[in-house]
Amino acid sequence: MNELLRYFQRELPGINQFLDAEAEALNGLVRDVAKHIIGSGGKRIRPMLTLLFARAMGYDRDDYHAIACSLELLHSATLLHDDYLDDAELRRGRSAAHLVFGRTETILAGDALLALANEMGARYGNARLCWLLARGIMETAVGEIEEIRFSKHPTLDREAYMNIIIGKTARLIECACRCGAALAGATPEQEDAAGEYGLNLGIAFQLVDDALDYASPTSETGKPEGGDLREGKVTLPLILFMEDGDEAASETLLGLMRDGELTEEQCAEILAQVQDAGCPQRTRDEAAHYVERAKACLAGFPPGEPVTVLGQAADYVLTRTK
Amino acid sequence: MNELLRYFQRELPGINQFLDAEAEALNGLVRDVAKHIIGSGGKRIRPMLTLLFARAMGYDRDDYHAIACSLELLHSATLLHDDYLDDAELRRGRSAAHLVFGRTETILAGDALLALANEMGARYGNARLCWLLARGIMETAVGEIEEIRFSKHPTLDREAYMNIIIGKTARLIECACRCGAALAGATPEQEDAAGEYGLNLGIAFQLVDDALDYASPTSETGKPEGGDLREGKVTLPLILFMEDGDEAASETLLGLMRDGELTEEQCAEILAQVQDAGCPQRTRDEAAHYVERAKACLAGFPPGEPVTVLGQAADYVLTRTK
User: Fold this and answer.
1) Residue A226 pLDDT greater than 70, yes or no
2) Among A123, A124, A138, whose Cβ lies nearest the Cβ of B115?
3) Is B111 in contact with A81 (Cβ distance < 8 A)?
4) Residues facing A103 on adjacent strands
5) How far apart are CA B116 and CA A294, in angstroms?
6) How far is CA B61 from the centre of its chain?
7) Among B159, B143, B164, B194, which Cα is nearest to B314's?
8) What phi and psi values does residue B40 have, to the nearest 5 degrees?
9) Is residue B317 within 8 Å of residue B1, measured between CB atoms?
10) pLDDT of A40-93, one tens digit each?
11) Which residues lie below 8 Å from residue B63, measured CB to CB, with a gap of 6+?
12) CA A236 – CA A241 distance, rounded (Å)
């Protein structure tokens, strides 16, 4: 993982600087909200992937920041609206923006970041980049909506679950990879290979996220343990647990989750059972398949530092603990 | 106004059909919200302007719907978020969407319409269109934000007021006109002339809107009379009234508006005084100047039905009573 670490250490400051400058230039009413969500960390995976695919394709110019960072801002915009609509209290260990700045500022900051992301992608006069970004924004919006709709009618349907994690997470990561390739003037086949890597990586990333939600204490993830369960979100660890269990008990649990009537005691008990049954680990095992598929997509790119880092990034998704 | 009427009667059905089909294709959770806001009428000024400028430039293809309607959807997205954040009760005479469908559905429908608008503009593979749309989205978001910020610190500053109506209304109308010209492959000068027409028309449009708010009964506008005053929005009729009045009284009124402490009796009294002082009409007189400027921008376009209709559309902005 040495190359991965070195690459991030070298490139992250430039990306963060660019993000900070764009947030600083926003209107006063929403500037602090934007700085709060951007400054709260995040792994900057999306901008790094855009950069890495551009470099893997031999792109040597230094004007990649706007398109790379647009994906991060789009992701931040989604978090702002999501956390507000979910009544979330924490984000990356800090108070959620709407609790600090109020609903008006938070909703409008989300709108402004979405608009800014889109405008940043349009700066290149490259119609393909615009199209990729427009589609990424659309797919992410639909993914958000599907997730909320699913949480109102939770089921154990794995296909529905997969569609949701693809929509809310993997499509945007696919978009980040495609944008890097498109910036470098990739052929459709090369762009598709980059997109395929991103899609599989994104699925693995979200699977691990959902596993961590059941397995990792708040102090590491910055989110309350078992948060998905409490919020009524059915994710793979719970699906795996309930597939092995009693059907009637599952229906009762889904009903309680849907109506928000799960008590703290019931939550703690289910959490322990899901952990004891090894379901977080089994979720990680699923993620490992997608990581392998992602890595296979790199075969057509010329060897070198970017492709090495992309391979290590895929492995890192699997080993991260927060 | 015969040509204007005939043109709208001929083209509106196609535009409405396209908008309905796009709304129908949205995700189930937000579809009805989108249909509610799109189906609640609106004058379709933005799509018509895009079409008219494309036709004025000799564009004879029939693939204009996506870009023309994208501006209408963008406008609808703004209304959804605005009405929710303003706690508005009515929109075009119907209950505001958030009161019918709830906050989650309404916020997400706004996000989805914004994303869809953007995606529709990107369908042409035309980088200039993408850029215009991206900038229009950004300027509209900033305009919304400025308006809300201004309402928290209302002043009698006419420059601030003008910036707000430009941001929240005129820039998007400018964008609609520019997109029509750009679709037809306009030179930068031609696109600028179309944009200048739109900017001036948009300013006139909003000035008349603000005059109507003080002068027109709910039954015609579908909005409560004096709504801006009640919501603490300082607009030109009030600025003109207070510029002629007592400074201390103005400060007191601004304070009450800011704190939302204006009583129904005070509102009714101020409304009557603003009307008696002829301030709605003086606001319309201002609008007339902008209409003239808009019409002057048409000089460079070849005469014909589209340019005739654009001239009549400018006059119509001034004479409308709702």
Assistant:
1) yes
2) A138
3) yes
4) none
5) 29
6) 27
7) B194
8) -80, 15
9) no
10) 777 899 999 999 999 999 999 999 999 999 999 998 988 888 888 877 777 777
11) B124
12) 8
- Sort out which chain A residues have CB atoms less than 8 A from B119's CB and list them: 134-135, 137-138
Nearest-Cα distance to chain B for A296, in Å, is 31
Chain B nearest CA to A159, separation (Å): 17
Nearest by CB to residue A146, choosing from B27, B84, B123, is B27
Residue A91: strand pairing partners: A94
Yes or no: say if A164 and A254 are a contact pair by the CB < 8 Å rule. no
Q: Are the Cβ atoms of A138 and B128 closer than 8 angstroms?
A: no
Which of helix, strand or coil describes residue A262? coil
Contacts of A115 in chain B (CB under 8 A): 134, 137-138, 140-142
Of B114, B127, B144, the CB nearest to A126: B127
Measured between CA atoms, the residue of chain A closest to residue B138 is A115
Chain B residue numbers with beta carbons less than 8 Å from the beta carbon of A123 are 131
List pLDDT tens digits, range A92-124: 777 777 777 778 888 888 888 888 998 999 999
Question: In the structure encoding, which two tokens stand for residue A9, read together?
Answer: 């250490």
Lowest-confidence pick of A17-21, A149-153, B53-57, B158-162:
A149-153
Look-up of token digits 């693939």? B63
A318 to chain B, closest Cα gap in Å:
32
Alpha-carbon gap, residue B111 to B74, rounded angstroms: 10
Q: Which domains can be identified in chain B, with CATH numbers?
A: 2-319 (1.10.600.10)
**Residues B91/B149, Cβ–Cβ less than 8 Å:** no
- Please report the DSSP string for B193-245 in residue order: HHHHHHHHHHHHHHHHHHHHHHHS-HHHHSS-TTHHHHTT---HHHHHHHHTS
Interhelix angle B65-85/B45-56, nearest 10 degrees: 150
Integer angstrom CA distances of residue B182 from A126, B55, B73: 15, 11, 19
d(CA A168, CA B320): 45
The verdict on a CB contact (< 8 Å) between A134 and B118 is yes
Q: Do A29 and B119 touch (CB under 8 A)?
A: no
Q: Which of A30, A81, A137 sits opposite B118 (nearest CB)?
A: A137
B72: nearest Cα among B11, B27, B127: B11
Count of pairs with CB atoms under 8 A, one residue in A, one in B: 131
Q: What does the DSSP 8-state code read for residue A169? A: I
- DSSP conformation class of A62: S
In this complex, do A104 and B85 lie within 8 Å of one another by their Cβ atoms? yes
Report angle CA B248, B249, B253 to the nearest 5 degrees: 120
